[in-house]
Amino acid sequence: MGRIDISFENVRQKNDELIKKVNSKLDGDIIDRYEKLERSISQSGGEGVEAIMEEVYQEKEALISIKDFMIDLLTFIQETANAFEQVDIEHQETAKNIG
Fold first, then answer.
1. Residue 1: what pLDDT?
2. Among 74, 87, 98, 72, residue whose Cα is nearest residue 2
3. Cα separation, 85 vs 7, whole angstroms
C-alpha cells in the first residue's frame, strides 16, 4: 500500500512482549508488594491504620486499573494492526488482479 511498510510480525512480537511485561511487573511484582504491604500494615496496631490501609488499597486498585487499561490498549493496537494487515493483503491481491 503506497510507501507504507509495516512488519506485522514485529508488531505482534513487540505487542506480546509488552503484554507480558505489563502482566509480570504490574500484575505480578508490584501488586504482590502492595498485598505484602497491606498484610504488614494490618498486623500493626495504632491510630490511623485503617486510613493507611484504605490509601494503600486505593493505590493498588489504581494500579490494577492502569494495568487493565494498558492491556486493553495493547489489545486494540494488535487488533488495529491485524485489520491493517488484512487491508494490505487485499490491496496486494487487487493490485495483482488489475495489473
1. 46
2. 87
3. 9
Residues 65, 27 contacting (CB under 8 angstroms):
no
Report the half-sphere exposure of 89 (CA within 13 A, side-chain side): 8
Find out whether 34 and 25 touch, Cβ atoms under 8 Å: no
pLDDT tens-place string over residues 29-38: 888 898 899 8
2-6, 9-13, 47-51: which has the minimum mean pLDDT? 2-6
Q: How far is CA 42 from CA 13, 28, 60, 73, 95, in A?
A: 42, 21, 15, 35, 67
Q: Hey, what's the cell of 66?
A: 492502569
- The CA-to-CA distance between both ends of the chain, in Å, stands at 14
pTM summary value: 0.76
Q: How far apart are CA 26 and CA 17, in angstroms?
A: 14
